[in-house]
Known about the structure:
One of its GO terms (molecular function) is oxidoreductase activity, acting on CH-OH group of donors. This protein is of the alpha/beta class. It has helices at 46-50, 65-80, 105-112, 124-137, 181-185, 189-199, 201-216, 223-232, 239-243, 247-267, 276-290, 299-317, 322-330, 336-340, 347-362, 364-378, 386-395, 409-418, 428-434, 437-446; strands at 2-3, 19-21, 28-30, 35-39, 58-64, 84-90, 117-122, 141-145, 157-162, 165-170, 176-180.
Amino acid sequence: MWEMRIHDKIDIYSLLDRKFNCPFCEKEHYIPIKLIFIGKDAISRIPYLISTLVRGKRILILSDEITYRVAGNKCEEVLREDYQVTPLILYPKGTKRVYADEKYLPEILAKAKNKDAILTVGAGTITDLGKYVADSLKIPVICFPTAPSMNAYTSGVAALLMGRLKVTLPVQPTRAVITDITIISQAPLDLIKAGFADSLAKAFANADWRISSLLTGEAFCLLPFKIATEAENKYIDKGDELVQRDERVISSLMEGLNLGGISMIIAGKSSPASGGEHLISHFLDMYAHFKGAEIFAYHGLQVGIGVIISSLIYEKLKVLSSREVRHLLSHRKIDYDKEMKFFGEHVPIVSKEFTKKLPVIKRLPELLPSLWDRIKEEAFSLVYTHQQIVEFLSKAECPLRFDDIGVNEELAYHAITKARYIRGRFTILDIADEMGILDEIVDKLHKGEI
Ligand SMILES: [Zn+2]
Ligand SMILES: [Zn+2]
């Protein structure tokens, strides 16, 4: 087995499909993805690239009406010579566009049965549907992204709408991600911006995870943070070039997103890519689904707003001393049941999630002050300042305020103060609420600053 040392330059691509000992957490990690390829005219090379990755010749190409036009038809054409190709094009059912909704599963399952592999041609929706079906049929899935819009191409989870609830299910990761730089560079700008904003969650998610691990003793590994940082440095302050569709910057963004997905495989959970900032976005999705309405904006754009909230919270926390932390924690009493009444008939689902982290929340006054200096050193050091985040997002022309994505002040207030209740994961939102910091964020909202 290959040994990696802490100061080695980490080339994660050399670690695909092999076990290695981690210098950070000292555990063994395994990334089952065999190939991550990005290049010009990659589409023409698909038959060659997958020749050793797929046994058998029957391939289902999964796309929707848009992604089929963008690349699905060309994939079909290049594969037809060597493979028996079946295209499946999804059309919206009762919504403006196709979502990763369970109602699409029966037709995909029916077509994918007796196939040797699924090639997904699309972004988040198609990727999640394809990964889920391939996993249930125990056949490999290969992703051909049409947009650098999120990190699901390499992750080991699929987010699906089941009933009116979005659930994240563990699935086998893709066998390969083959990216044609020309195609993803021509993706709708909002999808490129969404990918960029989603990737900014990394620093905050890892910081949240580190804090949670210090408080609860759950496992933590710094490798996920490390691997994505190098790619991130190549695009994070180049939002202006990103929206000009600069292929080099878009390629780096795609790399950052793919490493974000891989970081979740390494961690065995979504923690290194999803913290409190994601709860804000999940809350907005949940609200829309409960109302039977369409989502407010692309996942990443909503996450970008969440990142702004998290950055404000970290900014306020990092100047506090452990004495002040103790003082703030002892002065606030929250009536959780009263807060959760907001969720109406869905209280049981929410309450079940929130109860998972209640033991650690109850112990905060005892644990947090004594761990505060360590948290500052090991978690706060990972995040960007609020001003940096605003600069990064502005340069990439991403939404900066709730209003920009159609969320009114009242709902924004609930998103800030209630998002913590919808998941059992402990995040910075919990600490901020327990210390009364969220009230200060809400003040900013009422002043029209966020
Ligand atoms: Zn590790
Ligand atoms: Zn995300």
